[in-house]
Amino acid sequence: MTRENSLVSAQWVEEHLDDPKVVLVEVDEDTSAYDKGHIKGAVKLDWTTDLQDQVRRDFVNKEQFEALLSGKGIANDDTVVLYGGNNNWFAAYAYWYFKLYGHQDVKLLDGGRKKWELDSRELTDEATNRPATTYTAQEQDLSIRAFRDETVEAIGVKNLVDVRSPDEYAGRLLAPAHLPQEQSQRAGHIPTAANVPWSKAANDDGTFKSDAELQKIYEEAGVDFSKDTIAYCRIGERSSHTWFVLKELLGQENVKNYDGSWTEYGSLVGVPIALGDEKGEA
Amino acid sequence: MCGATEGGLALAGVNAAKEAVIQGQVTRAGEPVHGAYVRLLDRTGEFTAEVPTSATGHFRFFAGEGQWTLRTLAPKAEPVDKVVHAAIGSIAEVTIPV
To answer: Domain range holding A240?
Structure first.
């Protein structure tokens, strides 16, 4: 994977607004944002209801994902272009999710909704109607998804990349600061994890930095590209953004996203936790 | 939920005594600016959170004790930085003209 086949510009999207084989998909943390205005022709995915099992803490299964995409009018051979607010956090999460279920041609709109808005490009509240399809998903590709046990085993062995803000990493905050801080998890980070906040990979307008800049950021933070990598954050969406950078932009081979992330790890009984700005010992 | 609602999360249901709230309004020539982006940077300048402003130009963060910088991006305006101090149990009010 490279930048050319995983990322598109706002200009490219404007030129393909009427292309029936290009499906724009908006995914926002604020699930009401789409309803107030979206890019023409875009369909909406609600990450809380469409992408999460409503009882267990897990994703929707293959059959549910197939039903979801079929209902949204997305075909297996469509080019899916994801975008969203918050610098594409949830769009990157959906990108990773589409890859998990084997969709071939999926891309991110560089800069997402923010860049689109800051450019004063057009948004509409017009409803999108796409005829239903019969979508077929693959079994989950677990080469890109990490679970808790392998994350614990990765301490001191693989690259662990904690992409939360430095204050969350150190344990001074428990959640990103647009959310209340009272949380049930323990504070801190997984020992030996490097702290490379997702935001270091993005410019202020939400677009990604150049490959050379990105490479340097991770190397300087002590990420050893000869090793396998597991990225995590609080609930797995910011780490999808970093997974996208490492796997899709920089072309690293073995990169997994630990979607259980700190809400799971910080609630586990008996696992080691490091506090403060230092990585901590294995 | 781990993302920014326009204007920031409402205080309803939040125990404000345990939070260090930073909130305010983005204005242009005295009028509220909707759809600006306010980012909260920590004392080292690192990104900590971001919210788009509401229809009335408002934003809200739940920070920690100490000094923070608010960086505001709005269409057709230069970014504006403003330093603010937050403390648990209090609300820091900020107006940001762009």
So the answer is: 145-265
